[in-house]
Amino acid sequence: MLRAMLRDLRAHLGRVAMTLAAIVLGVAFVVATWVVSDSAAATVSSGSYRTDLAAVVESRPKTTTDREIPVEVVARLAALPGVTRAEGVREGYAALIGTSGKIGTTSFAETAGTDWDDSQRFALTSGRGPQRTGEIALEAQAAAEAGLTVGDPARVLLGGDRSDTATVVGVFTYRATGWEFDPAVAFDADTATRLLRDRDLPPTAVTGFARIELSGADERAVVAAATAALGAGFRVESGSDLREKQAENARSDGDVIRKALLAFAAVALLAGVFVIANTFTMLVTQRTRQFALLRAVGARRAQVRRAVLTEAVVLGLVGSTLGVAMGVGLGLLAMRLLPVVGEVAYVVSPWAVLLGYAVGVIVTIVAAYGSARRAARVSPMAALRTDATVPRRSLVLRTVVGLLAIGAGAAMVAVTSPEDLTEPKRILAMAGAVLAWFGVLLTAPILVSAVLAPLTRLLRKPRPVTRIALRNAVRDPRRTAATSSALMIGLSLVCAFSTVGQTLSTETTAQISSAVPENAVVLRAAAFGTLDDTAGAAARAVPEVTALAAPRSGGVEVVAANGRSSDTEFTSLDPAAVGSAIRPRITSGGSDLRRGVMLAQRVGTELGVKTGDQVRLRFPVEGDSPATVEVPVTVVGLHEGSDLLRGQLVDDALVPSGVYRYGDSMYAVGADASVLRGALERAFASRPDVLVQDREQLLDDLLEPYQLVLGLVYVLLGAAVVIAVFGVVNTLALSVLERTRELGVFRALGASRALVRQTVRRESVVISLYGGVLGIGVGVLLGGVMQYVILANPVFGMSVPWLTAGVALLGMGLVGVLAALWPARRAARADILAAIATE
Questions:
Q1: What is the pTM of this model?
Q2: Where are the domains of the chain?
Q3: Alpha-carbon gap, residue 120 to 43, rounded angstroms
Q4: What is the pLDDT of residues 33-59, one digit of tens each?
Q5: pLDDT (tens digit, 9 = 90+) per residue, 79-126?
Q6: Which long-range contacts (CB under 8 A, 24 or more apart) does 418-423 make?
Q7: 318 vs 182: CA distance, rounded Å
Q8: Taking a C-beta distance cutoff of 8 angstroms, is the pair 418, 792 a contact?
Q9: What's the CA gap between 529 and 522, in Å, rounded?
Q10: Residue limits of the ABC3 transporter permease C-terminal domain (predicted)?
């Protein structure tokens, strides 16, 4: 029995070619994901483990001003028994200025400068280390961003509004000992001592070390000696503990990458399940008489079922083998294409190979199981009929379950509300959306009949080819639904993420357009920096500036009269700039900060506070003895929060001294925006850390991360769409085989080969467009729930990505045409007499 089935499978390899393609692509995605995540983790950790460290000493600061280790501590540690070397590491503000005249964004400027030593901290990729004043070495990514190489002059912005020019003598990669940012610039030790300090410290300030690195043969003895010598004011960690933490961090990063990519791989596999299930259904249908003859000569139902499942196992093994090989190749290619500086590690673990085989075989068996059961139910009497078909299951149960899933999913979303969208409610709403999504997949056959069947009656006047194509698609709604569902899966997720991205883009654009006047000029800090009082004074000194808003944010606790409180943020402003240089989106009351505070609408709702109520603001004050200062104020209005105006809006004069505030942007307005921008560019020409932009450039910078993420999502979800395209080709090819006699009669009645090709192509376009329309509709609704969960906007308050939807629909039409090329050509070449004689 098994030999007969395997022989039949080998004799009709063309029938299963597209099934193999679906298996191969799905398995390749999974294996490539595993290879990329393992290789990424190995790349992060390879070559970064330092073997020259016995211990690292850091300070336990009581305040923010004594976090550095005094210079004399190095000598004390060097004299300890077992310590062969004690090396102090300096850190300080250093921003590399690129050819544009502004500093880059690769490094965190606050700690981007360090001193060069001959330890394993630095791994030279070219040149040598700095040895004297006037020489520097650059970190590889920072050098690439600045467009500098060995031998080039480089200018570095330093703390205290100073700068230094030196020659690049080396380029390096950095081996960190913990969570510190990689430095961008390394000076020789004497120059680093002279130049490096915090940005806010005066040039004459004496600075210490950020940490001290100890070497020694006996790690335990070094740690014990350093701990005993320094006391509770310092933290001593062993080198082995640091290496283990780095390894754990690398594994954790790899797991994050793996989980994210496996989610997309699961989508591709789900599309593959529909393609494989559809293929096996049609293969079983075409071999109904063969199964009936086997039953007639004594084959039991279990034998037929096992035979079909054996075919699935064989296909799964073959497809998994090809998929694993393809996945390994794709994974290694992806690692080569990623922008990784330094040596890239390639890892192909046994788990990746085993998972590929497990996924390929299991997915194929699951997809083929329903067809195997239907094949086993074929009656022996079916061998006597030329039109025998496999018994079909009723769609009633599937439809009822699908409708219940859609209703339950909609109810799960409806019971939540944007005013009180807690974390459990967000999870509930998202789970409801996914449940409804699966409900649509279950009801897809009924939707085929409900949507396409009326079209066959409405489209009576157009050419007969269109009506024939529609009737062929409706003839087997289960098959059409399976084919279109594979398309719908990938396309719906593309449209869902596109809807979220479009909504985020629209929201961000609306916030910026509402808050920032069209004629405003924006001053922004580069390299994760801040704009200090000096920058504000320089901007106010420009004659063309008529109003300047310099929002600065920090933490505050808002306490209402009813006893409720909320730990939140505040943004302090000059009241004179509110409404002119920057405009909050007011929902209630006014915006005169001289009279009180403007609460964020969310906080007001949470605390039960409205305009006119009294609240207390508790500000945390830094210092040798941290404290809290409480300020009673009146609520003068409520506003919608934004990325520019976060939390509660307060008067600059209301904030107690000693409260930490952070500001990275300023907004200036004047009579003529172009004249104002030119004046500000001249005023800040000597400030490489300040960028001068208009509102459109600010929008572009804020939206760029969204576009990059969406682009990556589209590429990853494209695998599911590609698999679905193979499903369309497969369905049409097998459908042509299934309708050989019908096509022969069609030709015998006078249909030309061109007409036959056109009929098959039109059917393909109908199926593809139906899957496209279904995917776009479901995707937009799913995206509406996703943006509701993320932004707490109303579900139907999403922004529909019309351009993406239009391109997707055109793409589905093109897919339909291309997918039908081979099946249509095969159908047109069918011999008329042979086709009519086919049983």
A1: 0.73
A2: 1-51+239-393, 55-238, 395-442, 447-515+696-839, 516-695
A3: 17
A4: 888 877 877 776 665 677 888 999 988
A5: 999 999 999 999 888 888 887 778 876 667 778 899 999 898 998 999
A6: 418/788, 418/792, 418/793, 418/794, 419/605, 421/788, 421/789, 421/792
A7: 47
A8: yes
A9: 15
A10: 263-380, 715-831
